[in-house]
Amino acid sequence: MSTDVVPKGPEFSYASKSTDSQATTYFYQFDMPGVNACLLVGIDGEYKGCIGYPGYTKFSVTPGTREVSFTPNAPIKIANLKIDYDFEAGKEYFFGFKNVSSKTESDTEIETQYNLILDTTYGWYLVEKQQALKELNGMRSWHDAI
Fold first, then answer.
1. Domain over 3-11+19-136 is classified CATH 2.60.40
2. Exposure class string for 66-93: b at 16+ Cβ within 10 A, else e
3. pTM, whole model, 2 decimals?
């Protein structure tokens, strides 16, 4: 793994600061072989955060159905996955990217895709809060502005 994708930002610390007018989102992922760029997370075409390997990002989202995109932060930026998701004001959302073999029973599948190089399937899951907080423990946020 390239050291360029290891986040050097602050370590995860949970503080419930949801607002009544916005949704609070957390996106995180574990280490992944062969990756050489952080993963940009976009909402409605605007990049909101970048996730290292392993790492997380947190940001607020305006309620309603939003297009969420995931794009490697490479010289040519092409989203490798887009989903539509309906966010509610005042709620927290924890999305984890994981190998389908490591998901828990309480994880809700949002979107999965087969990785030909690794010969396995990964996906984004909506993770129950207490499980997500355990998984986020020790992760760091990205250290550079996007």
1. yes
2. bebbbbbbeeeeeeebeeebebeeeeeb
3. 0.87
